[in-house]
Design brief:
The chain is α/β, with parallel strands linked by helices and 260 residues long. Helices cover 42% and strands 19% of the residues. An 8-stranded mixed β-sheet has the order 1-2-4-3-5-6-7-8, with helices on both faces. β1 and β2 (17-24) form a beta hairpin. α1 (46-53) packs parallel to α9 and α2 (78-91) packs across α3. It is globular, with a radius of gyration of 17 Å. It starts with 5 loop residues before the first strand and ends with a helix.
Length: 260
Amino acid sequence: MLTSLLVNHRVDLKDCSIFYEQGGVNSSLTPILFLHGWGISTEPDHEILELLAQQHSLIAPDLPSFARSPYPQVIPDYESYAKFILSFLETLNIKQVHVVGHSLGGGIAIALSNECPDKVRSLVLVDSTGVPSASIPEIIPRRAIEMTAQISIPKLKLQLVDIPQVFSHNLLFNTGNVIQALLISLQKDIRHLLPTITAPCLLLWSEKDLTTPLTIAQEMARMIPSSKLVTVEEGWHEWGLWYPEKFTSIVLDFIHQVEQ
């Protein structure tokens, strides 16, 4: 087993304490900021983070109020999350980042790009939210199909232990923001921000995603000026968790092209 290149840290902002992992190699390069998806934390993404850190510097926070980043108030929208992340980066004196955002993290990344474009060197939106596609009654059977299908993929511990454990913690101790973040993901339309993105942007999507279908990626690609859409056959909304080597290879190839 490789020695971890990441170290756990915590920083106190004005209203929130943020837990994050930081480290990796090539520290002279612009670091990757990894924003996880709805309802979880960085824990289920740990294999992805370690693979990224083998080739690039990295910083990966638990989003405000989730898991190890406690915050007692309800966060109303993407823009409010983005302001937390901006304050987090400024507190750490990080001038610029390559932002990789999955699902809810992608919507936050879009808002961050609009809030402070000079901070964002490049943007990777992975099966991102930001364009509404379904109501709660519609999304429940879609998620049931995806989660059932994923059981056939190896890494049952991730599916049956790691993700349920952190999600249960958030649901129990962070009920308000778990619900509000779900509503943001399903209902908040930030299409108007897409044309304002000036950084090189990679849209990275599973062709089989039922939660944020490929049609959303195609619409985003039409609206984001400097964007490229890459699709994978592997499956469903959290495909990167099940295929971390492929995920990190595509992300790093894009980022290293931007760095050249």
